[in-house]
């Protein structure tokens, strides 16, 4: 076999080997690209799902806060209504006490200025000052 034919065979074999290596490298690159694409798609889906879940959590928290606020408002309103009732009763008692004192004062005779005060009245007058 002439040398040129052998050399052509070697060149042909070498080019086939280079083509096979190139094809293998291309296959590896495509496989890596597909893996990355799948990863990015999965990551994007996870991100979307996480964002959706976070919106649900925030909405649920807002609903819970509204419910708690309504309950607190109802409780506070009830307490204030009861307090108002107690204040009205206390005010009525105070007014009744003042009326009784006024009636008692009006029913008492006016003391004569010439008569000396009894000892107990004088002491009470000093205690008020």
Structural account:
Helix content is 89%, strand content 0%. With 129 residues, it is mainly α. It has one domain. The longest helix is centred in the middle third of the chain and has 105 residues. The mean pLDDT is 87.
In brief:
89% of the residues lie in helices and 0% in strands. The chain is mostly helical. The chain has one domain (3-105).
Task: Give the SSE map.
Elements: H1 3-107, H2 119-128
How many strands in all?
A: 0
Taking all Cα atoms into account, the compactness measure Rg is 51 Å
Element string (H = helix, E = strand): HH
Biggest beta sheet summary:
none
Write down the domain tally.
1
Strand content bin = under 5%
User: Helix count, per DSSP?
Assistant: 2
Query: Roughly what percent helix?
Result: over 70%
Q: Report the oligomer.
A: single chain
Q: Please state the structural category.
A: mainly alpha
Global mean pLDDT: 87
Report the span from N to C terminus: 145 Å
Task: List its salient traits.
129 residues; mainly alpha; 2 helices; 89% helix; 0% strand; rod-shaped
């Amino acid at each position: 076999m002439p040398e040129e034919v052998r050399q052509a065979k070697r060149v042909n074999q070498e080019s086939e080997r280079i083509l096979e290596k190139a094809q293998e490298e291309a296959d590896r690159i495509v496989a890596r690209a597909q893996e990355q694409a799948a990863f990015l798609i999965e990551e994007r889906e996870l991100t979307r799902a996480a964002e959706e879940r976070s919106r649900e959590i925030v909405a649920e928290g807002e609903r819970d806060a509204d419910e708690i606020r309504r309950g607190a408002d109802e409780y506070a309103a009830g307490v204030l209504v009861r307090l108002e009732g107690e204040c009205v009763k206390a005010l009525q008692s105070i007014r009744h006490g003042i009326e009784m004192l006024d009636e008692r004062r009006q029913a008492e005779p006016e003391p004569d200025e010439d008569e000396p005060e009894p000892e107990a009245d004088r002491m009470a007058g000093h205690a008020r000052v």
